[in-house]
Amino acid sequence: MPELPEVETTRRGVAPYSEGQRITEVIVRDHRLRWPVPDNLSSRAGGQTITAVRRRAKYLLFDTDAGTLLVHLGMSGSLRVMSPTDTLLKHDHIDLVFENGRCLRYNDPRRFGCWLWLKPGEPHPLLTHLGPEPLSDDFNGEYLYQRSRGRKAPIKQFLMDGKVVVGVGNIYANEALFLSGIAPSRAAGRISLARYRRLVDNVKQVLTSAITQGGTTLRDFVGGDGKPGYFAQQLYVYGRAGQPCKACGSELRESRLGQRTSVYCVTCQR
Ligand SMILES: [Zn+2]
């Protein structure tokens, strides 16, 4: 599933080919995404020029003067820069066609993604109530500390709550908690400011290193049959239950917290 680093890598991959480009049409071959792709998407977006490609949480936002195209990659979506005449692959559901003869082609086998149109300045329900971006200055130790007072929820669930901070998926929550020496089940309200400062540093570090790694795949966004890679990184705990801790050698344990698997070291994480 594309996590925040993959979405940010996608943004960086497609932005140079999209910004400043005039949209001629949106070809929708299958409307059945997570929500139906609006019938009038092509008439809304057609003729508009993309002024910026932004990201908020895991949403990609293609801004134009007449509104914003909102794209979410869902569980299995990907975008490639193609020519509209290139051979279609299975699950190539949408082409965003540009006047210069190129298009952004959207492939999504599981169809959990979405393509929606937002009117200018209209707050969209999907984007309101979102917490700060994890790589912004608004996400800092003091913020998490204040926000967590009185909260009994396990720190891992608290950290993965999009109203607290967006885009910290299961992999990154596991890794950042390990690096910070914090047990995933510890009550969020019982963690000190000093430990929250460390946790924030580690969240930023694991996300930044994943984005840096994604940078090596940027050329995969142009042409070809391949899909942009969702990159594997060096992981300390995620997916390593039963294996030795890389810091102390103890066997890593696994538990379920709020439907998600947590992997942690009982010696290193308290
Ligand atoms: Zn350990």
Question: Topology, please?
Answer:
Blueprint: H1 4-18, E1 23-28, H2 41-45, E2 52-56, E3 59-64, E4 67-72, E5 78-82, E6 92-98, E7 103-107, E8 114-118, H3 141-148, H4 155-159, H5 170-180, H6 193-214, E9 253-257, E10 260-264
Antiparallel strand pairs: 1-6, 2-3, 3-4, 4-8, 5-7, 6-7, 9-10
Helix pairs in contact: 1-6, 3-6, 5-6
Residues 245, 247-248, 250, 265, 267-268 line the site of zinc ion.
Binding site for DNA: 91, 110, 151
Subunit structure: Monomer.
Organism: Parahalioglobus pacificus
Distance between the termini: 29 Å
Give the uncertain stretches in residue-range form.
Answer: none
Name of the CATH class of the largest domain = Alpha Beta
Biggest sheet: strands side by side, in what order? 1-6-7-5
Write the element-wise H/E pattern from the N-terminal end onward. Answer: HEHEEEEEEEHHHHEE
Strand content: 15-25%
Give a count of the beta strands, DSSP E runs of length 2 or more: 10
**Number of structural units classed as domains:** 2
Q: What level of helicity do the residues show?
A: 10-25%
Rounded average pLDDT: 93
CATH architecture of the largest domain: Alpha-Beta Barrel
Name the structural class.
alpha+beta
Textual characterization of the structure:
Belongs to the FPG family. It comes from Parahalioglobus pacificus. By secondary structure, the protein is an alpha+beta fold. The chain has two domains: 125 residues, MutM-like, N-terminal (N-terminal domain of MutM-like DNA repair proteins, Alpha-Beta Barrel), CATH 3.20.190.10; 124 residues, Helicase, Ruva Protein, domain 3, CATH 1.10.8. It contains six helices and ten strands; from the N terminus they run αβαβββββββααααββ. The strands form three sheets. The chain has a four-stranded antiparallel beta sheet. A four-stranded antiparallel beta sheet has the order 2-3-4-8. Strand 6 and strand 7 form a beta hairpin. It is elongated. It starts with a helix and ends in a 6-residue tail after the last strand. The mean pLDDT is 93. The site of zinc ion (ZN) has 7 residues, from loops.
